[in-house]
UniProtKB/TrEMBL annotation, chains A, B:
Source organism per UniProt: Handroanthus impetiginosus
Top-level division of the source organism's lineage: Eukaryota
Keyword Cell membrane: no
Alphabetized UniProt keyword annotations: Carboxypeptidase, Glycoprotein, Hydrolase, Protease, Signal
Name under which the protein is recorded: Prolylcarboxypeptidase (Angiotensinase C)
E.C. number: 3.4.16.2
One annotated Gene Ontology cellular component of this protein: vacuole
Gene3D superfamilies from the UniProt entry: alpha/beta hydrolase, Serine carboxypeptidase S28, SKS domain
InterPro entries to which the protein is assigned, alphabetical: AB_hydrolase_fold, Peptidase_S28, Ser_carbopepase_S28_SKS
GO molecular-function term, one example from the UniProt record: serine-type carboxypeptidase activity
Lineage, opening ranks: Eukaryota, Viridiplantae, Streptophyta, Embryophyta, Tracheophyta
Record-linked Pfam families: Peptidase_S28
Keyword flag Glycoprotein: yes
Gene Ontology biological process terms, A to Z: proteolysis
Amino acid sequence: MANLPKATLSVLISLTLLSFFPATLSFPRLRSSRFLGKFSSFNNKGSLGAPPYRYETRYFDQNLDHFSFSDLPKFRQRYLINTEHWAGPDQLGPIFFYCGNEGDIEWFAANTGFVWEFAPRFRAMVIFPEHRYYGESMPYGSHEEAYKNASTLAHLTAEQALADFAVLITELKKNLSAQACPVVLFGGSYGGMLAAWMRLKYPHIAIGALASSAPILQFEDIVPPGTFYDIVSNGFRRESISCFNTIKDSWDVIESEGQKSNGLANLTETFRFCKKLESTDDLSNWLSDAYSYLAMANYPYPADFLMPLPGNPIKEVCRKIDNSPNGTSILQRIFEGVSVYYNYTGNAGCFNLDDDPHGMNGWNWQACTEMVMPTSSSRNTSMFPPYDYNYTSEEQWCLENYHVKPRPTWITTEFGGHGFKKALETFGSNIIFSNGLLDPWSGGSVLEDISETIVALVTEKGAHHLDLRSATTGDPDWLVEQRAAEVKLIKGWLDKYHGRKRTAFDM
Amino acid sequence: MANLPKATLSVLISLTLLSFFPATLSFPRLRSSRFLGKFSSFNNKGSLGAPPYRYETRYFDQNLDHFSFSDLPKFRQRYLINTEHWAGPDQLGPIFFYCGNEGDIEWFAANTGFVWEFAPRFRAMVIFPEHRYYGESMPYGSHEEAYKNASTLAHLTAEQALADFAVLITELKKNLSAQACPVVLFGGSYGGMLAAWMRLKYPHIAIGALASSAPILQFEDIVPPGTFYDIVSNGFRRESISCFNTIKDSWDVIESEGQKSNGLANLTETFRFCKKLESTDDLSNWLSDAYSYLAMANYPYPADFLMPLPGNPIKEVCRKIDNSPNGTSILQRIFEGVSVYYNYTGNAGCFNLDDDPHGMNGWNWQACTEMVMPTSSSRNTSMFPPYDYNYTSEEQWCLENYHVKPRPTWITTEFGGHGFKKALETFGSNIIFSNGLLDPWSGGSVLEDISETIVALVTEKGAHHLDLRSATTGDPDWLVEQRAAEVKLIKGWLDKYHGRKRTAFDM
């Protein structure tokens, strides 16, 4: 089997760029590779090509530690900015501010067409700031230095990132004499969590937030730990029970095949890996990743979000799994299925496994410090190998691999979680939590209205922050309506702000 | 002149305990002693005597850095707790939580009778946690180690203190199975700022806050920098214009006296200092401190808050200044006046100046990092020596003395300030900003209602967080009414919380 041709390599590389919210895949046999966020710290410039939207790239010197006065070097935060359509300070032109997540900000800018497309209508400025420790926004001057050890990574936290955003907006507005201009926050996935938290923590800085696919309740015991994999599994079961069962049965087949003397070689051949498999865990992980990402990217139209995929890709995967000729082995069926994900273009000759799963990367660090999201796989409802969540072993893993002890209750202490609705029904305003129920992250998100102005927009057939993507001709009506509802709410915030402001000026 | 007798020493020592909000006195000639918070880091156990209220003293291990994962040692936070009257978790008994300020928590507990006196009526638990780096709550094991240098002091910030409070409450509630019990925050002065900020930043942790004398707007250019000294000055002018003028004229007299060959010796004798004055600045500072503290403690009844004082002490000071026999020199009049402050008991034989004004202390550090409150003294409206605020020289002073660079715009970025009302009129709820207009800190406080539930209670004749003190027989009607209004509002928050909670339980 030959290695991948060059064109296909870029497809695989693009997987390494996936900067959407990473699943915390954690199975006992897959311990070493449970976080997928490791992909997100790589620079994507090579594969992105020309950016689809126009912006200037600028840099801003940030304090590494906003909450203490340690004598640390500043770092350069990158941000993308477009003021072409901005109404300017005199007319209180709005500022659309995307809360950058765990990856290169240009990738998010390219995949958040919604913000770019609606900004001109609002005569809004657009800003995409990069999250510290990702892309080019590296403390200590380089990725290598920033990711050197637990001490250099210490300041990679959500609160510091939010403070970066707060300082950046405040300074930018001051420089533009735009202090009175309203800021609207946007974010998807982890960026959506940041957008919601930012509105709650910095109401004086932003008048509202659209938080798309933001699983801010995926902590501690707020939602059942099996939620994520149950939703992925349901995505397959709703297409076909036999597809679900084939996948569910496949793990034991893989396991027993692996125990045969020639087993790993056979599996390597069946799944067309470029290099020989070293363990069945690597294969199981590779498959689990595919299923999870398929669920997130289960969009109603063909898209090239993580990988080039057909519309409703899970339907396609299950079609392949179910419709193989009689006598096709279960492993061959599985291979045909995941090829929809890994090789939809048909160009891949063989497949490479992920890079070193032990490599230091941003999301792994975050998951080993603050972002402790309990994850399990239920024997009854999940098609994945069963796994009971065990905090102690997670902690052990983090101590061994990152020399850091997680603080599993910190996020809910800092941002709330338990009793979220009760706390906010008489506090706060202007947040939209948008979710598609096909998205496995929807299980940890806010799915019901909290108050009149903190609202949930839920679509039955949406997947991971689909609403933030650019409009396409393939958009179903419900998606068009969802975006229209979001625009209407944002317009309402702005009208109210401008109205009050004008009244204030009249006084 | 003999040194002070022992009994009087304790009076002077008690000044070193004053842990209410320190004035940022800053005159060009008084540069070295511009922050008074230096008193507040001393332990007051010796002078406090038996605490007037009953509580247990407990300790809690806190992370030194909540917002980063640096490998720092934990520290023991002290807190005082009383559960005698608590209704318990089943009845959702409230928790009254005082946000400890920049000093020994036992001193605040002793001077915040309001919380203790109303807790039984609400069947509330009472908790007084100590602020990090004050009292016994010392990082690195001791005051000496914690205050060693800029690096050890780095984590003395308001945000870290708020996070301490949040973690402490959350853990305490968990241990008591009291997660659903409502928390009400209290705080006076800097503690009032913390209470208001805590309600805004941690709405999921506390249902409301009584923030007394909390100058959260005393930053940057939100209020005029002359506000503080103008209010102090007005406190004297309203008693007597001649008193105001005598004080205003005295600075030049002191200055020219000091330039005479025997001047400092003469001044030392006139003001009865135990040791010879080294400069007129020391004297001016000593006098300015007295006037400022007199304004803060200008209570309507005799009290022993900072020093033993008569009711309406400024009236008494001015009576002394104005009514000295004909021919009494201006300096002698001034001395008679401030003796009301420094020696009301009449026991002092001579006076000691403050301790080393360069000594590291908590509030000085905070004022040189986050708490940058511009202060000036107007030639026209202030009775103090004129002084224009100059940030550059403040920064220079901090760099030289504490090796730290202030971040003068950080507090307003983190907590808001400009457009405070606009930001919160449709966001947040349940905060009482109480202020007395005699209090010089009222000028930087919230004096008008922000919304229906973020309200201002203003009394014309109140001084520094008078409402938080215990009830006395000398309380005027307006003070009784102010406290009743506060209790009614807090009861409203709790009733609403309990009502909603019961409804939730019924569902």
